[in-house]
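Fig. S4 source data, part A: sequence.
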Amino acid sequence: MDRLTRSGALAAAGLAAALALTACGSDDPAADRTSDDRPATASGPATPSGAATADAAVAAAAAALAGTWTGTSDGLPVVLSATSGKVALSAGQHICQGELKNMGTVMIALKCLDGDTARTMGSIESNDGGKLVVSWNAGATDTLSRAADAKLPKDLPTLPAP
């Protein structure tokens, strides 16, 4: 990948990650809680039987997916960023965000800001830590590589004092 494409992909990854991490919600923290977030009552557990196994599967997939993944599809950059089960995707001109969900198997469930549906439900076909393959329900398959951790150069010049 040439330097311009890599720079564009990293910028898109930053934008996608910012969108995912600042997902919309209300100002009332109690309103943002789902029934699964509410504490258990004396009458029984807060989650149904088997939910612990499903949560463990999502947590394992989230840990393996964490980071930024880049590639191309139809000549356009595709960047997927994931942290704590939240996922952001930039594919060409489309920006999508969502999360990992257990639907019998762990899936990437996204909603695109422009209404695009090409990459809204994806199945992780393989992830060896360096290469990720995601098949999307609309037919596309993305093969992405883990992006190297960006580090600032150590010998940055200092600004002159005013």
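Fig. S4 source data, part B ends here. The helical segments are 3-21, 29-32, 51-65.
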